Every structure is written in structure tokens, then in C-alpha cells.
Amino acid sequence: MASSLVSRPHLSARPVRAASLASPSRACVAAGVRCQAQAAGDLDRHYMRRCVELARKAAGHTSPNPMVGCVIVRDGRVVGEGFHPKAGQPHAEVFALRDAGDLAENATAYVSLEPCNHYGRTPPCTEALINAKVKEVVMGMTDPNPIVASKGIEKLQGAGIDVRVGVEEALCRKLNEAYIHRMLSGKAFATLRATLSMNGIVTNQLGKGADLSGGYYSQLMKEYDGVIISSDLAKMSTLPVSHEAGANQPQYIIIAQGESSRLHIPSLSEEHASKAIVLADSPITVEPAGVEVAVLRQIDLDSILQLLAQRGLCSVLVDFREAGESFASLLNDFQEEKLVQKVVVEVLPVWLASEGLNNLAFGGSQSFPLKNVEHREVNGSVLLEGYV
Ligand code: AOF
Ligand code: ZN
């Protein structure tokens, strides 16, 4: 079982304590349910961070479900751990309760997301927690899924279980930013990625080691459910892949706007043809056979993101390489229409010759500041990440 393989933190045996009293979590109040005032101590936060760490083990495998981790603690000792490995498989709480066995009785269950209270592909986690006789459930955030939202909390409280919500809430929200976005908007969470030279030229190159194991690009390919690329990139070079261990390769969404009647994707084998979908604005034959082709009157990002969400993709990377004008026009007004949530820009330590205005800019006519911008240096390049 996935959960039995994970290591446990070695902590001194002391009970979970309620340290500083903060105001009740926003989620708790908004949900209109009565939870205990939030009392998150250092240990609470420690166990919740462990839940998030466990949840991340399934990055790239859980969509359309969220990533969820769960830790069961009794008398200050971790007695069970688990995470949700994949949609269709049991939820995090089930793995953690199995791992804890009888020791779950009177224990505190930490879970990064509100336990579900519905019969989906799997039975409700609330019932599993109630049957295991846990004393308390501490959760990172409520589940935005309308069929769950706060019903899990109500059910647990109705069974006499103490509930606290909002421990490490920001971290839990970031973990599932794509799942939350898809749940609330009906569209896939989109991140725009581009590489620039130091003189501001958009380039197809990636930074040194970026697409090798451990490189940021290889990690993005593991984490994102899909990648939108231009037909020019698909024709010219190998399709983007992740070299991370156990990675689930992304779906390829290939924009073939204004493309001739034949598109050959040399690096895609027939065996992997189902990994790609070509969106074209006129009838087109695609090789290898077996690639899905959708001919649309107009190719716009809004419809693409809705289509991807309907197909169960939570996140997609818009990879701005070999991006001709039609690809660039996809991104017109992305900020105004809230189509792109995040931007990742890599700046290479090179100066590049300009071939004209085409490769100087992307993203249309908008001006706006980015939020929560972070940067780091990777192999001599600078990676900038910010939210729209
Ligand atoms: C939890 N723990 O580990 C996960 C939850 O079709 P199902 O049965 O897998 O249900 C999917 C929904 O359950 C998903 O949309 C989300 O609301 C919740 N996911 N809940 O208590 C978990 N993955
Ligand atoms: Zn569940």
C-alpha cells in the first residue's frame, strides 16, 4: 500500500496542544458551520505540513481529484499516514486509517482537505473516520466541491467529533490551486510559460538542465495535467516530457491554427497518439493516426480551458515556444478574462539577435502588476513565478 511505504517524523511523545488562539478560519465562517475557534499550535502545523508533503507524492496523478494527505496522531505519536494516489482509488483518510488500525480510536486525524461525505467513486471518508472512532479531525481547508462543501464538517460534528478547520490553510490551498480553480470556474488552471533572453527576446531554448531530471521544466511536465503547444513546436522537436521518476506525462494540446491540411508529429508514436489532441480551424490529417482532431470555427483559450476541465484536467501549461502570431493571439486579453492564473518566466544569461518584433512580446495589450512573485536561480538562469 502506498501509505505503508512512507517514513514517519520522529517526534517526542507529547500531546497535540492548542497554542495561540487565532480568529476562526474564513472557510469555517463562510461555510456557516460551527467549528471550534481555530487553535493552531506548532505541532498542528507540523502535522498539516506532513499531510501536504504526503499529498504531493501523487502530484500529476490525481486529477480530476485533489491531492490529499492524512496523518493520524495518538498520544503525541504518528500512528498512521496516507495519501490519495489516483482518482478511482481510496482517499487519503482510508489509507491513513488502515495504517493506524485500532490505534485510530481516540486519535486526532489531520487531513489537508475536508473529508468527503458522499458516495463518489469511493465511499465517504466521514463514515470511515466515525467508524474508526477518532476523537478529533483537523483539516486544512473546506472542500470547494459543491457536493462536499462543509457537509463533511457537519457530519463529523453530528457524530460528536471535534473539528478544527484552517490549519496551514494557505499551504493547503496552494497545493490544490488547480483543483480549486477548476471546481469554482469550470475551467482548467492555466499557467503561461516562456523563456526570455536578457535583452527580452522570447526564445525556444530552455535553460541548462531545465528539461532533465530535477530541472524545473521536467517538474512542470510532471505536475501539469496538460501542455498547450504550437503545431510548429510539435513538428520541429520532441514533445515536452518529464524525466522525473514515476511521472505521468501530460496531455498534449496542439494548436494548429492556419496549418496546412497535413500535420506530421514526428516524435509521437502511434502507441501514444491518445496523449495528443489537435485543435485546428480547418480540416486536417494528422500523423500518426489515432490522434484526436477537433476542428473549431474559432480557437480561443476560454473554450479550450472549458474543454480540458470537462475532460478532467485541472491544470495546463501554455508553453510559449515556436509561438507564431496565432498562438500569441490565444493570449490576447488573458488577464481581463481571467484565463491565465500564473506566469513562469525563465531568463537566460544570453543576448539574442532579434528577428523583428514578432519575438519581442507576448500577451496582448494588457498592463498589470503580478502578485506573489517569487524568483530563484537555476543553473545560471533566473526563474520568475507570479500570479495574474
Ligand atoms: C477526501 N479525501 O483523499 C480526496 C477527496 O470520486 P471520488 O469518490 O474519488 O470523490 C472525488 C471527490 O472527493 C473530489 O472531487 C473531492 O471533492 C473529494 N476528494 N476527499 O476526503 C481525499 N481525494
Ligand atoms: Zn473521501
From TrEMBL:
Protein name, as recorded: Riboflavin biosynthesis protein PYRD, chloroplastic
Cofactor(s) the protein requires to work: Zn(2+)
The CMP/dCMP-type deaminase domain, residue ranges: 42-164
Classification via CDD domains: Riboflavin_deaminase-reductase
Top-level enzyme category: hydrolase
EC number: 3.5.4.26
NCBIfam families according to UniProt: eubact_ribD
Molecular function per GO: diaminohydroxyphosphoribosylaminopyrimidine deaminase activity; zinc ion binding
Keywords: Hydrolase, Metal-binding, Zinc
One example of a Gene Ontology biological process annotation: riboflavin biosynthetic process
Entry-linked PROSITE patterns: CYT_DCMP_DEAMINASES_1 (PS00903), CYT_DCMP_DEAMINASES_2 (PS51747)
Function: Monofunctional pyrimidine deaminase involved in the riboflavin biosynthesis pathway. Also has a reductase domain that lacks catalytically essential substrate-binding residues.
Pathways involved: Cofactor biosynthesis; riboflavin biosynthesis; 5-amino-6-(D-ribitylamino)uracil from GTP: step 2/4
Gene3D superfamilies: Cytidine Deaminase, domain 2, Dihydrofolate Reductase, subunit A
Gene designation: LOC101762852
Cited InterPro entries: APOBEC/CMP_deaminase_Zn-bd (IPR016192), CMP_dCMP_dom (IPR002125), Cytidine_deaminase-like (IPR016193), DHFR-like_dom_sf (IPR024072), Eubact_RibD (IPR004794)
